[in-house]
Structure formats: C-alpha cells, structure tokens
Amino acid sequence: MQSAIAIVNRAAEQALALVEIWALIAERSGFVGAWRLTAVCRASRTGVKWWLGSLPGFLICGGSHGSGAVNDVWQLDLATLRWEPMPALVTARYGLSCCTVRGALIILGEECFEGPTSTVEILLSGEGRAFNDLALLSCGTIEDAATVVVEESDSAAGQVLLIGGMAVVDGAGTEMSTVYLVDLATGICNPQPALLDSRFSSAAARIPDGRVVCAGGLGSASLTSVEVFGPSTSGTSNADWTWTRLPPMSTGRYDCCGCVMSDGRFAVLGGTTHDGDESESDLVHATESCEVLMLGHHGAYWEPLPDMHYQREGFACVAVAECIIVVGGHSTAVTEVYDEKLKCWFILSNECNLPNEDRLASMGSALW
The whole model's pTM is what? Predict the structure, then answer.
C-alpha cells in the first residue's frame, strides 16, 4: 500500500515538474512563442497557461467613438485572450493619460462630456474595486499631455511627470512646453525644466537608465523632433536634470504610441503625420510605420521596425513578454502583436478585437 502511494506521489511530482519546465520554456519563448507551445501536449498547455496567467493584463480606459466619450474599462487576459470588463471610470473621458503607480491604476485629466477636466481618478487592487477621485491638479487643465511614472518613495500616493500637452483658453488650444512633477496625493504640480519644443499628443517613456524620452507630437505640424530628460553634464541630481535634443525620427508623428522593448530600446509606433495645413486632407494621414531609438556607446540613431498591418492613430499599446501589443485607433478595432524575436507582426484572433463594435480611439492603456 505504501509502495502504491509512493508511486502515485512520485508520478504527481514528475507531472508537476514537467508543467514547471514548460512554464520556464514559455517564459523564454515570449508571448507569441508561448502560445505556439500550447499545441505541443497537455503538459505544455498547462505550463504555458500557468506562465501566461502570471502576466499583467492589457488594460484600456475610456476613449471616444461616434457618440462621444466613454467610461468603459476593459482588460485583455493574456492567458485566455479574452477581454474582461473592469470597474467603470467615474467620468467618461478620451485622450486620457493612464499609468500604474504602486499597484494602483491612475487616470489623469483630458476631455469629458462637459469639456476638459483636471480630475484624477485611482483604482486600487482588491475585491469590490471602484474608481475614486483624487485631488485636482494644481496646474489646471492640460489636454493630451504625456505621462511618465517617477520612481520614488517620498510621496504618499506616488508621483508622475506630466509632459507637454495643450492648454485651452476661450475655446482655442495652444501647444505647451511645460513639464510638471505631479504629487498624486495632493495634486500639487511642481514645474520642471521645460521641453525644448512645445508639443502635445506625443510619445514618452522612461528608458532603463532612468532617463525620459519624449518623441513626436503636434506643434505647427507633426513633429519629428525627439528629446531626452536626464542629468546635465554639470551634475547628477534630479535638480540638475535637463532636456537634450536627440536625432529626429524619420517622419513626424502625433497620436502615436511609444513603449520600451524588452532589450531597452524605445519604439514609436504609428500615429498621424501631416506637412502643413490640416485642412489639406491629402497631406494628413495615419501611418502603419514604426521605428526604434538606438542608444549606445556609438551615439543615438533611429532604425525602422516592420510596419504594422493597419494604419493606426489614437490607438493603445503595451510592451510585455518580448512583444508589443496594439489595439484600436480611429481606423480599426483589430488587435495585433509584434514578436521581438521573430521581428514581425501577427494579427490575433477576432476574439481579441475591441469588445464593442465601434472603433474606439484616444483611450488610455497600461499593464495591470
């Protein structure tokens, strides 16, 4: 009897070990490679799903379609490739900034039904979740600013950088070069060194060495210019940080997306480009092109990435598990993924398309 129990226990241990091995293989295969492994055998499928279930979900917040702003929040489960509804925003809004700070989801400002708003919302993890309002931003309403999380431990709720954007006065919008360090607990916005170029609807992210890159956006036309926020040559403290110009992108872009790939490169995807008066429709178009910033000992330069399958503007993207996932935008509801190892884009199944029939655009996105 004891021998039979020992055999069963040993078999169970071996089966569990096999599943764990497949989970490790999946982790080293990236998101696309892992999904391909699910077809190998039952143990591979279990191990892959185990690893995929440990990944954060791709979350989209708010946005706009034909009837105006929405307060919907959805999360794409990377283990099931299904969109799941999340608690709704307090205020319907589009063009919003969305990020995760200390495990909480933060929503900042942008447009709602009543017009621009300086409200900030937070969603904490846990059961019975709901969005709650935080303090209003002391800098007032800023539309289409880029948001980057600041790594620190001094504030009660965390801090973010609010980069550029557009100020609206008496119905007229003006692009801005302002940069604010926002304390989320109090809403106090402390001015930082200004951008070299005024811009809104740009792409920004923190790269592995701690510096912040801001690319593209809209000024008098779609911008090719790129700048980086980091220590000046005269000092290394945050007080000495300043903006420095980097080589321009190959094309001007706004309503684009930016993300940091697994190897630390900063990628800029899609967006809208135009060369002058936006009333000339033949000069204004969305693009499927992508490019990546190379930073190293030999200087900085841009290299092309393969084009997406669809032209996209005002869409959402995240980088996770050696891939980039994009969804939505003004032109399509299709979801596609870029595999960094295979260096190509794949269209995901129809179940991964945006959960509503309308083409949702100008939404926020985050991993959570």
Answer: 0.91
